[in-house]
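Quick one: structure tokens for this chain, please?
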Amino acid sequence: MAKKPRTAGLDPETDFQEISRTLALYEFPWDTMQALSFALFRTYAVPSIGGLLADTNQFTEDTQKRYDDTALLLEDAAIEDLDSPRGRAAVRRINQMHRMYDISNDDMRYVLATFVVIPHRWNQDFGWRRSTPDEQLAALRYYQALGKRMGIKDIPETYAAFERLLDSYEEEHFAYDEGGRAVADSTLELLTTFYPRPLAPLIRTFSLSLMEPHLLEAFGYPEPGRVARTLSRAALKARARFVALLPARRKPAYVREMPRIKSYPHGFDTEDLGTFAPGCPVHRVAEPVAQPVEGTKA
């Protein structure tokens, strides 16, 4: 018998934060982590994003900590309501970091689009079950609310609009950049450390096999080939079938408790995560993002 979604009966318009939490902590914790990791990874292929991240040296010289900080801040923002003390602290820390650099609203909106679109596409391809329409709407409402609190302007109103934005932005802006490639290389190397070292070449090929040709081209990565792509996708689909047979998860799967998060073995304070002023020189941006309005009601 198929497992009943834990989110059944919740209203995506009013309970979107509870639905999103449930999906991340109980229904699709591993998938959510993978999908968001790939979502962030593809943003490096936009030169104005990848180049800026390379200029900070944080994603190339202290990759593990930057990876951990990003994952922990996103989780802290979602683990309670966005307007809870914990949620506000996480969003405030995210906004403080963004204010250190000159980031365009278009780039910020594109990154938000990756959070909306890529997890849904991952779920459609590799989830142990398909997300329900209410779950998809709840995810949309959550990221719209997060985007408002980050001061992002002209946030799309529907999933379809987010999807069009993502695809058109990538078509227009994806391009090779030495800085973006350096950040991508460092991130790929980090991903291989999450598994036994002898598997590193396999993990790298597996990761490349999940990337679309236009993303590989933007980074200057080789095409892994049809066999590698077929085997990688088959492995993920086999995992999905196996997970579907397991009993419903009873304990929440927090990112902070995952072995791949290594920077804070004794715990952390949200206010101490991320980077701090003076930051680094900025470049290549004409329109700064609007000032965020923290605590805005969705």
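DSSP finds 13 helices and no strands in the chain.
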